[in-house]
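I hope you will forgive my troubling you with a question about protein structure. The matter concerns a single protein, recorded as an amino acid sequence and a row of backbone structure tokens. Please examine both parts with care and let me know of anything in them that strikes you as inconsistent. Thank you for your consideration; the sequence and its tokens are set out here:
***
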Amino acid sequence: MLFGNDFIEYNKYMIRDLFVCLRGSVKERGSDWKFKKERSPDEPIIWEFKIAKIEELHNVKGTLIKSLNIGIDINHLSDDLISDLKALAFDQSVTGRTSLFFNVKDAANNLNIKMFARSKAINVSRPLIHYLEEQSEEEVLEFEVNR
């Protein structure tokens, strides 16, 4: 439940079927009160979730996904794969904010090349994620977020 200033600040997010991201902390109830009542040792601790920030879920992706790491075996690297990734990741209509890292592996020669796209940031879209998941299931590549 929201009371006082929390209600005034966050009531705009209390809409049915609105998906939100809550950030906050769990602490002992009343720990931030000015005149906190002392608790007896045999009295149980009551915990509460204190909201620090609420955001609409569709706006959060851009701020939470800092980096995308894609690992590709050199034997699976192809022009089609590169052009598909380029078309999905570097959408010209949307400015990207996510750093892109590649890790190209050559198991036969025991080589591992790590690359970073310095000049461009990408937009992590649903089609890109679906494409990466499909390629991952086919064991063409592997990917990680924020690693």
Notes: The chain has four helices and six strands. The first strand starts at residue 20 and ends at 28. The chain has two domains: 4-61, 65-145. Residues 100 and 147 are 11 Å apart (CA to CA).
